Amino acid sequence: MTDPTTYRPTNVPTDPGVYKFRDPTGRVIYVGKAKNLRARLATYFHDLTQLHPRTRHMVTTANQVEWTVVGSEVEALQLEYTWIKKYDPHFNVKYRDDKTYPSLAISIGEPIPRAFFHRGPRKAGIRYFGPYSHAWAVRETLDLLIRIFPVRTCTKGVYNRHEKLGRPCLLGYIDKCSAPCVGRITETDHRRIVDDLCAFLAGRTSPITTKLETEMQAAAAELDFERAARIRDNLAAIIALTEQQAIVLPDGTDADVIAIDTDELEAAIQLFHIRAGRVKGQRGWVVERTDDHDGGSEQLMQDFLIRFYSDAADQEQTVRDSEEKAIKRRGVDNYVPIDTTATSVVPHDILVEIPPADIPHTEAALSQLRGGPVRIKTPKRGDKKTLMTTVHRNATEALKQHKLKRVGDLTARSAALQELQNSLFLPEAPLRIECTDISHIQGTDVVASLVVFEDGLPKKSDYRRYKITDAAGDGHSDDVASIAEVTRRRFLRHHLDSRTVPELDGSQFEDEKPQTSNKFAYSPQLFIVDGGAPQVAAAQQVLDELGITDVPVIGIAKRLEEIWVAGEKYPLILPRHSQALFLIQHIRDEAHRFAITFHRQQRSARMRRSELDNIKGLGAARRTELVKHFGSVKQLRQASVADITAVKGFGPQLAQNVYDALHPPE
């Protein structure tokens, strides 16, 4: 481990630039950019305890830092991307797909291009369309398209075999392939069909439709009605294919819509490709959050935009170069490949949920990639805002599914429990873990949750929820006192023999399920509270008072996901990719979800209460009848006793009671 003070740089310029951290072997382990190099690099050499765990690990692994001054932040953005791609630094954020998406691929580098289903890494010489959300969507689309564009879909082995046999395969006989293997169509003509298919998949459907309409009319004029009918059917298939996707933006916008959902450790990014107002593709990534400096999600969004579109433009350029080389090798004269400029990769409009840290420079960098203006906008209302909500919901679900993959993996759960045992020096793996969380708004409607995990999985039948009493009598309660109350109410019943448990006031346990079964007859191997040292100390004090010594208590603080152990002065920092940390975080999040759901129920019930609740003889049905008759309590207050008596079910005495309650003497 290196002491960062031994290589702290001096005389750093204040210009914008890009910097690299290197380890003792000279390998680049981190690349970053800055508007002001001196100010940014200084943040890495503060007190190590104040740095983010990932940053602390990086600066103690490195032993030197170097920088390059550039003319503007646009240049810094581009140079940072170039260096990240070149060096693949270990400590830079990795953008990994949250799932593998199938695509429709066309091998444009081959003499006779082939259309096929593809999933996995992309290769040069192949043009990809998608990604699609489902594999069946790719196969269904391809099956429909080869009716209209009869391109080759067979493998190289099948193609060579039928070329030797001198007869086409079944697809050739049913007109779903133009059969270039037997010379039914020339290489140049087949390439033109491939070009039309690529243009159609790229969203340029109008020229194809116009071309088919012209050919149909020409065939009809020549009295070739059979050919005209086939073209008519192809036109109908194109219309059906384009109408399969619902229009999400009625104005026909070409845009990419990007949303982010984050927790303390990771972020999920979802991107929807919108072309001509329709969803043409969807992609997702899960990245690790660093938040080394100010910027947070805004900086993450900026880095993602530059990295994603730069990669996409590079891939598109590689495709164009490979196609041009293939054309030159075949010696085709006067051949013009279809337009695949970066304009199709970087749209004119990019709709983001969170604006990037520096919009002008980001727009400038993307405009250079596109070869035209790019606008980054955050929708505030209308259809685009509705679509953004949908994309964000997908990001939330993607992050949830990513975390559940770890929980659902038996090996990962076993590793997490074993790591918890080793890290916390427990006598055995914590097979039963309980966690509590407090939920309130400014100390009102305070409730708590207790969730139970056994073998790393939630046991929802053992979940409990609590209403927190107001010990101070001021209508408010603090988290530390609430944690102490929940801990006392949880452990007072289970640890002692049921015959020695003192009689308790049942009102204290409102909304708890009666613990008459043996579900809580034994202690958890680990008790987690949502909070830091004060909350852990409060829970431990309660256990000490009850004489419980076999239940270890820890807390998880949200800022840096620190683990606070009862009795310890400093927190435990688990590695960012620790299975144990992911399990603790998942348990904490589940406790938070359960608590906030109960809190919302309590708050809604309180808000539904009115001045009619405490009137003698007025039940729920009659309250509803009153509000339905008069429209509101305000209108009811203006009514006379006779007016109230006219309501169904109200006699003179009850009407008088209602009137008196709403008009108290001054």
From TrEMBL:
Signal sequence, start to end: none
Start and end residues of each UvrC family homology region profile domain: 257-543
A UniProt-annotated Pfam family: UvrC_RNaseH_dom
SMART domains for the chain: GIYc, HhH1
GO cellular component: a single term: excinuclease repair complex
Keywords: Cytoplasm, DNA damage, DNA excision, DNA repair, Excision nuclease, Hydrolase, SOS response
Family the UniProt entry places it in: Belongs to the UvrC family.
NCBIfam families, A to Z: PRK00558.1-5 (NF001824)
Name used for this protein in its record: UvrABC system protein C
Gene behind this protein: uvrC
